[in-house]
Amino acid sequence: MSDADAQVQPRKTGLTRRQKRALSRGAQYVVFVAVVIAFAVTADWGRLKNQFAQWDLVKQMFPDVITLALKNTVLYTMSGFVVGLVLGMVIALMRLSSVGPYRWVAGIYIEIFRGLPALLIFVFVGVAVPLAFPGTEIPGGTYGKVAIALGLVGAAYMAETFRAGIQAVPKGQMEAARSLGFSSARAMVSIIVPQAFRIILPPLTNELVTLFKDSSLVLILGVTLEERELSKFGRDLASTSANSTPILVAGLCYLLVTVPLGFVVRRLEAKTGESTK
């Protein structure tokens, strides 16, 4: 091909990579807006309002939904989190132990309690334990049972989180502590664990959110009117009123806690990322 022919041929025209990305984003926005408009146009807002937005039922729920149901939900969650935190740390240290039986027991515990649904663990605590040990009662009544059930669930996940955090601490930290005369146990408690705890704060907060939602399984244990949590409180009123507004209000109360916790998790993750740079 001669130089003249090359000059006559038209130059290929096409979209640049940036233009393609902009076009793709624009198409996604169009689809999103179309879906929202379709939902807004086709939904029967009158029926939704009658079923989920009865103001009289909302007023009936206050202040008990906050002073009773939300309070119990927070108490159940925090008690289970504390039990899970302590037990999870013990299981994590057993998993990292040089003693074989400790590692085996910790590994079996983690695999079993991570694999079982939380519902079965609540049934185990509420039914199997009293049958296995007649005449014995868990201290604290329902609150104690929930703390143990949620703690058993959370400990399996927290143990792996603790183990990952401990292993993420540079080995030089332990070597430096031992060179200063620290025993292995003292170095672990005083040097390694505090650094690991800082690393695992975001996933621990995520586990707290999970336990907060799992506390709704307390109904398996059978609760009194004064021991109801958000889900039970909302379901009881929904069944008596034949309306779903109480369930929606209970869900919004969950969001009052989980949304701020989610914000805390993001902030902790951002700070952890900055500290590792």
UniProtKB/TrEMBL annotation:
Under the heading InterPro entries, the entry gives:
AA_ABC_transptr_permease_3TM, ArtM/GltK/GlnP/TcyL/YhdX-like, MetI-like, MetI-like_sf
Supply the Pfam families for this chain.
Answer: BPD_transp_1 (PF00528)
Q: Which domain of life is it from?
A: Bacteria
Concerning its family, UniProt says: Belongs to the binding-protein-dependent transport system permease family. HisMQ subfamily.
Where is this protein localized, as stated in its record? Cell membrane
Instruction: State the organism of origin.
Output: Streptomyces lutosisoli
Specify the protein name.
Amino acid ABC transporter permease
Q: Which UniProt keywords apply?
A: Amino-acid transport, Cell membrane, Membrane, Transmembrane, Transmembrane helix, Transport
Transmembrane stretches, by residue range? 27-46, 74-94, 115-136, 142-159, 180-201, 247-265
Q: How does it sit in the membrane?
A: Multi-pass membrane protein
Q: Which residues form the ABC transmembrane type-1 domain?
A: 70-265
